[in-house]
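Quick review question:
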């Protein structure tokens, strides 16, 4: 999934709580909210089969299912409207599905783990969950988070302390070089030989001559 290919309804889908009782059909049977409309983006986002018949009969609707208490959607229902080529798929009840959001990873002691086991050769780039195949993400939510992280990386690099430090060092070097050049010019001036001093010469008087004897 590329950032420009992310539909506006995806974030709403990931934030929606499903398998709640429909407020419009409290007394009806099978009134769980397991459906989502990719066209309306109206609230409430999750609705039941009765709401589907009355309000979304002509819209593109996908059904959310459960696997081990986590929401999934069938690949066949979503692959033509969303690029899921980087998301790990699983076969559940003979149908291939993808998970909507990241699943918590727990050890036997109940302590969350962050890294994939060393025996796994593939892991989610966002949460490090071990993957079965050569995919990049374990869920649609992790895929979206990965895209958001990629978008924020350029600004983070520009504002990083390292880049600011480099600019500071460059400025210091520039100031140092200019100071050094000034010192060198001063030294050059000091090393110049002063002009020779003029020596005042006194003209000697002629040798006195005696008057001749007569």
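Suggested answer, residue by residue:
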């Amino acid at each position: 999934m590329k950032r420009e290919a992310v539909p506006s309804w995806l974030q709403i889908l990931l934030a929606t709580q499903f398998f709640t009782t429909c407020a419009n059909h409290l007394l009806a049977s099978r009134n769980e909210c397991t459906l989502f409309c990719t066209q309306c983006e109206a609230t409430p986002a999750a609705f039941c089969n009765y709401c589907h018949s009355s309000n979304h009969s002509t819209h593109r609707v996908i059904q959310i299912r459960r696997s081990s208490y986590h929401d999934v959607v069938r690949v066949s229902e979503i692959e033509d409207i969303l690029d899921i080529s980087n998301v790990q798929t699983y076969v559940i009840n003979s149908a291939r599905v993808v998970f909507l959001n990241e699943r918590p990873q727990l050890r036997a002691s109940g302590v969350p783990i962050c890294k994939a086991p060393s025996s796994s050769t593939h892991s989610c780039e966002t949460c490090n969950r071990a993957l079965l195949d050569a995919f990049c993400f374990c869920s649609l939510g992790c895929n979206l988070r990965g895209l958001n992280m990629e978008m924020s990386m350029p600004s983070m690099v520009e504002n990083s302390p390292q880049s600011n430090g480099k600019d500071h060092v460059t400025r210091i070097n520039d100031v140092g070089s200019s100071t050094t050049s000034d010192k060198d010019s001063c030294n050059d001036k000091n090393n110049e030989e002063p002009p020779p001093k003029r020596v005042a010469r006194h003209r000697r008087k002629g040798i006195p001559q005696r008057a001749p004897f007569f």
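Why it works: The chain is about 30% helix and 10% strand. The first strand starts at residue 35 and ends at 37.
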